[in-house]
Amino acid sequence: MKFKGPSTVVASALSVLLWLSASAHAQVGSQEPGQPKPSVVAQTQPRSIPLADASVPLLDHPLTLADFPAMAPRPDLKDKLGHLTQFIQNTPVDGAAATEPTEVYLGRTNNTLYIVFLCFAKHPELIRTHLARRENILKDDFVTVNLDPFQDRQRGVMFQVNPSGVQADASWTEANGYDYSYDQVWDSDARITSKGYMALIALPFRSLRFPPTGSDWGAVFWRNIPRNSENDFWPRVSANVSGQLSQEGTLHLNGLAGVTGSHNIQLNPYALGQSEHTLQTQDPNNPAFSTRHLEGTAGGEAKAILKDSIVFDATINPDFSDVESDQPQFTVNQRYPVYFPELRPFFLENASYFATPLTLLYTRNIIRPEFGARVTGKIDRYNLGILAIDDREPGEAVPAGDPLAKARAGFFVGRLSRDLGKGSNVGLTYTDEEFGGGANRVGGIDFTWRADSHWTILGQGVESSTRQNNPASAAFVFPTGYHAGPATDIQVQRNGHSFSLNDEYQDISKGFTTLAGFLQTSNIRSDHLHSTYQWYPKHSLAQSIGLETNQNIAFDHAGNRVYHYSTFDPFVLLPNNIVIAPLIGQNSDTVGPQNGYPLPASRNFTENFGGFVARGQPWSQLNFNVQAIRSGNVNYNPPPGQSPFLLNQETVQALITLNPLRQLTDDNTYLLDRDHSVKDGQLVYETQVFRTKLNYQFTRAWSARLIVEYDSTLANPAQTSLTRTKQVQTQALLTWLPHPGTVVYIGYNNDLQNYNHQLCSVITGTRTCNPGRPILPRGPAYLNDGRQFFIKASYLLRF
Fold first, then answer.
1. Is 458 within 8 Å of 447 (Cβ atoms)?
2. What is the layout of strands, in order, in the sheet containing 112-120?
3. Rounded Cα gap, residues 246 and 565, in angstroms
4. Alpha carbon distance 564, 381 (integer Å)
5. Average pLDDT of the chain to the nearest whole number
6. Looking at the predicted structure, is the pLDDT value of residue 181 above 50?
7. Which of 29, 401, 556, 767 is surrounded by the most beta carbons within 10 Å?
8. DSSP 8-state class, residue 391
9. Can you list the alpha helix ranges (DSSP code H) found in 458-595?
10. Got the DSSP string for 502-519?
11. Given the DSSP bridges, would you call strands 249-252 and 53-55 parallel, antiparallel or unpaired?
12. What's CA 702's distance to the chain center, in Å?
């Protein structure tokens, strides 16, 4: 069948976008010189919170914490600095005065912007702080500045410091919140005093992007006080208004002419030396170990910035040896694929430029890239994102004689959006994955409309076109034959102090596929509704009392019900961010012959459940999040020839962080999923995961990390087709990180699993692997199927 390109819907969407662009330019062209450009939303919706302003004076010397003895500026400096006070609570009591005073002093030189927070505390001994890895400070007291140099009220950059001076930085978008993959070079300092603590944020202008003309920046200042479950802001950021930058204040950096923004060129090369022992399974009839000693490689990234607006990134032979393993999730007996977040820095950076209601780019699908390029940035009201990258994994996962051995997959993703007033935009997205003559292409239009300070509507319509790769190859990348079809996503969101709601409707056709993205299932129409309502009692131990509900229902396109999930939980918020919530609800799953099971008709399984959630940080040394549920479940992996049946399920999820020492962080995760047959009470399967991550911070630059994870699945072969598995993973890493981009790693990774030492099921009387049975059969003992020792160093060059 002839391969079709993207749908004509995409062409129509492009026409709409161009029409909107021309219309907006016509409006802007008619304004008076020097006047602000009109906002589509602002013309009909008055601003509910007045603008706040602050000046940033020019200083004749750098600012340090020594300029603030006794938590006050020196007398000769006091009148030379910008000054902010009167922080207002966002939580727990929206609009109330902060319980602890906060002052901010501002100044700049021709090279650096200086921000000093003076955070007063009645009981400074209760301040929470740790000497931790960079960006691991969100459970501590901390201060933040969110800068919006372009004043578009949609994108910003955040800089955070805890009372130990540990840094965190992130990009911010109103639609997606934080993105901690953003890293910049800047300086910080902090110290605890008898009156509270002080924190200095020193931002070199060469680490920032800002427009070449104009000297007014948007800004939000924020102090977090976890012992009170409190967040204070200047200017006021109301929980009753959607967004943060939509409520920003204005910094006047008078006289920025001649001040240079971010470095135009950055090079970040790395060198890697390693010894590696791995199990190679490309040939199912000849699995074998590969050992390489003292192997060296190199690569790196390059960045070029055009007029402080467009960023060009390129990578050659990226290495991810230092990236930690995934946070555990339940993965056994799941009806749909499980989403694991991206952890690799190159793919995390500027990921928000590609975010849409449907997940059309899921970079975990790109496994072993060698070359890649990315373009992101903003020109006037247009936001641009382009990614082109290869993947060696599909061609390396097949035997040497395969027609597609050593072939590469290619990915191309493009997105263009246009801002339409405060918080609204319209955009186009196109993705393409090509491999071995096959392809998956997706394109369409999306929009975000901020109707008012509470309500936002998002939507997306796309079509896909997919054809299979070379059928003579064992590489199964694309589904057999040709498939095409549309997909639609509509979301209605309400954000408010008391009442919040998110309702998402999806219609995914049977032929729709996005292989560059993430899709749980096709051929489904679903609606997912989540809502909360909270009361804020006065003069009570409880800071808020609320009700939360989730209602999810789905049907396929033939009218068969797929599932109906309903949960209801009251909750109470106490000081120290403690939340207690009982859970009750009812789920039902429907399966039938349409799902490939030997059933004469669809069968519905009803699953009642109850449990509780408890989380909080009662002391600075302890943070916990525990969930325990007893419910029904469906056995989606029955023995061959049998149908799914109902289970009694018990699950526990526990995440406990201990900080016994200021420099030591111990993150512990425990998962339990135990299921018995409702019919006869027999154990069907039990999975357990225990993971501990220890991090010792010698200094802000030097740290040591150890991760140990144990996974096990016990399976009853009379009740399930699951097999018994055991796995122990270990990662040890010594890090020297003086600033982002310049780093030295010394690491060791090891993996043990209960594989049979023969590595395959042999034909009786021979040593030949049986091609009719899967490789890597399980056995009683552990086998080391992978270990790596490496030394990696990189250095950031900025021009």
1. yes
2. 82-84, 102-108, 112-120, 196-204, 187-193
3. 35
4. 42
5. 89
6. yes
7. 556
8. E
9. none
10. EEEEEEE-TT---SSS--
11. parallel
12. 26
| Amino acid occupying residue 590 | T
The pTM of the whole model exceeds 0.70: yes
β-strand partners of 117:
104, 199
Q: Per-residue pLDDT tens for 425-473?
A: 999 999 999 999 999 999 999 999 988 888 999 999 999 999 999 889 9
pLDDT in tens, 16-36: 333 333 333 333 333 332 332
Residue 581 tokens, joined: 């919530």
As a residue count, the chain comes to: 799
Residue type, 219: A
Encoded amino acid at 623, one letter: N
Question: 792 and 784 in contact (C-beta within 8 Å)?
Answer: no
Report the b/e string of 251-278 with b at 16+ CB within 10 A: bebeebeebebbbeebebebebebebbe
Task: Retrieve residue 326's tokens.
Answer: 């995934």
For residue 696, list its beta bridge partners.
Answer: 664, 704
C-alpha–C-alpha distance, residues 562 and 549, integer Å:
20
Q: Is there a contact between 83 and 108 (Cβ–Cβ < 8 Å)?
A: no
Contact 465, 5 (CB under 8 A): yes
Q: Is 526 helix (H, G, I), strand (E, B) or coil?
A: strand
Q: Which two tokens stand for residue 445?
A: 């239009």
How are beta strands 683-697 and 702-715 bridged, if at all? antiparallel
Q: Which amino acid is at 789?
A: F
Three-state DSSP state, 98:
coil
Residue 602, CA atoms < 13 Å, CB-side half-sphere: 15
Give how far Cα 24 sits from Cα of 13, 34, 449, 655, 767, Å: 16, 17, 16, 50, 73
Residue type, 131: L
Asked if 515 and 466 touch (Cβ cutoff 8 Å), the reply is yes
- Tokens at residue 232, please? 């204070």
- Is the CB of residue 628 less than 8 Å from the CB of residue 612? yes
The C-alpha atoms of residue 647 and residue 664 are separated, in whole angstroms, by 41
Closest CA to 127 of 143, 141, 115: 141
Distance of alpha carbon 503 from alpha carbon 698, whole angstroms: 47
Q: Which domains does the chain have, with CATH numbers?
A: 51-252 (2.60.40.1190)
Which two structure tokens, joined as six digits, stand for 283? 């040939």
Which of 39-43, 49-53, 252-256, 291-295 comes out lowest in average pLDDT? Answer: 39-43
Q: Are 560 and 591 in contact (CB under 8 A)?
A: no
Say whether the peptide bond before residue 600 is cis (omega within 30 degrees of 0): no
What are the start-end ranges of the E strands in 451-495?
A: 455-467, 482-494
Q: Minimal CA–CA distance to 649: which of 332, 338, 327?
A: 332
Tokens of 316: 């050659």
The DSSP code sequence of 589-629 is EEE-GGGT-S-SS-EEEEEEEEEEEEEEEEETTEEEEEEEE
The β-bridge partners of 313 are: 303, 374
What is the DSSP annotation of 716-743? -TTT-S---EEEEEEEEEEEEEEETTEE
Q: Which 3 state secondary structure label does DSSP give 340?
A: coil
At 292, is the secondary structure helix, strand, or coil? strand
Residues 6+ apart with CB under 8 A from 608: 585, 586, 587, 631, 632
Q: What whole-number distance in Å separates Cα of residue 483 and Cα of residue 247?
A: 46
Type of residue numbered 38: P
